[in-house]
Design brief:
The protein is α/β, with parallel strands linked by helices. The chain has 3 domains: about 140 residues, P-loop containing nucleotide triphosphate hydrolases (Rossmann fold), CATH 3.40.50; about 60 residues, Orthogonal Bundle (Helicase, Ruva Protein, domain 3); about 130 residues, Zinc Finger, Delta Prime, domain 3. It is built from 17 helices and 7 strands. It is globular and about 65 Å long. The two termini are about 45 Å apart.
Length: about 350
């Protein structure tokens, strides 16, 4: 059944296909991978605490015991009509890919195989096996775009019975999106801070999320967009020295280039000027940043913005693999983009 595109995943999860026996959920946003896996597990109707119905395995276990996944999938359920075999931490594991190949050729009748994986490149054995199987599907999970971030904000605020002003939403959105679980954590922190209120304001966001959610991150983003190397070094170093997490900077810049990519696409399709594209942007661009965004649109076409997004996505993956080097990786990546901008 191949794979769904990123924007199609939520729709499929809301109405899973009963014919699918193997589901691979993968991508660099591990929080989103985990959240969607839990959602799908809940759709089975099986209790996650029932060891007879839900079997949890680590990909490393299967690597050490080839055939383990096949054996678990073939086991007849004792106290329910089916079983869920839930595999976590999958990657480039040969034994797991081989077991999936066997199960894809002869699907289990009484089991659903759910696999959580990290970022799998096109051509990775596990992804290839799933995409080629008629009874399997691959669901990619990438860093949240603006629409996904807004949905998470709405979900958490609805649970708390709160609303949020437009200005506060825009400020909050800039600090979220890189990792779904981290995003929910930030929103929960904001809700706790504003407890007793019915509406969240920009002041609440600034005080709850801190500098990394406000102007400091904007300074770094704008310095990269404008190619101002000295401003970038000063702003980035100040953020790093303050003890804030580095990832929100990558997240904010990714969202900015996703917006630029979409706006530039509209410009090229409709023959619009940069100023017209910025004026018609939804959500609107802050007045103080319009000139910066207009100049960025003139500098990067759709292909250029896509290349920057690919570079940023790779940096996200590297920081996940080597968190101790997150600051150095982020600084190097952003400095390279700013340098490219400064050279025109």
């Amino acid at each position: 059944m191949a794979q769904k595109k990123a924007h199609e995943v939520d729709g499929w999860l809301n109405r899973p296909d009963d014919k699918i026996r193997i589901v691979l959920i993968y991508g660099p946003d591990r929080g989103l991978v985990s959240e969607r896996a839990k959602l799908l597990a809940g759709k089975t109707g099986l209790s996650p605490d029932d060891p007879f119905s839900v079997v949890r395995l680590d990909a490393a276990e299967i690597e050490q015991q080839p055939g383990r996944l096949v054996d678990e999938a073939r086991m007849v359920p004792m106290f329910s009509d089916r079983r869920l075999v839930w595999v976590r931490n999958a990657g480039t594991h040969k034994a797991l890919a081989e077991d999936v190949k066997v199960l894809a050729a002869d699907p289990p009748r009484d089991a659903i195989i759910l696999i959580e994986a990290g970022d799998l490149k096109k051509g990775a054995a596990l992804r290839t096996m799933v995409e080629a199987a008629a009874v399997a599907i691959a669901l990619p999970c990438y860093a949240d775009e603006a629409k996904g971030v807004d949905a998470v904000i709405d979900q958490e605020l609805q649970k708390a019975g709160m609303t949020i002003t437009l200005e506060a939403r825009q400020a909050l959105r800039r600090s979220l999106g890189g990792d779904r679980l981290a995003s929910r954590g930030e929103i929960e922190k904001l809700v706790l801070y504003a407890q007793g209120q019915t509406q969240i304001t920009i002041e609440d966001v600034d005080l709850s999320i801190g500098d990394v959610a406000g102007l400091s991150v904007d300074e770094v983003v704008d310095a990269v967009l404008e190619g101002k190397l000295d401003v970038f070094e000063t702003s980035f170093s100040r953020l790093a020295a303050s003890g804030n997490q580095i990832f929100p900077i990558l997240s904010a810049l990714m969202r900015q280039f996703q917006t630029l990519h979409a706006m530039r696409g509209q410009m090229e399709a409709k023959g619009q000027s940069a100023s017209a594209a910025v004026a018609g942007a939804r959500p609107p661009v802050f007045f103080s940043r319009r000139r910066t965004v207009e100049n960025a649109l003139q500098r990067w076409n759709t292909d250029g913005a896509a290349r920057v997004l690919e570079r940023l996505q790779n940096a996200v993956l590297q920081t996940r693999r080597r968190p101790e080097l997150a600051e150095a990786i982020t600084r190097h990546t952003l400095l390279a983009i700013a340098l490219d901008r400064s050279r025109g």
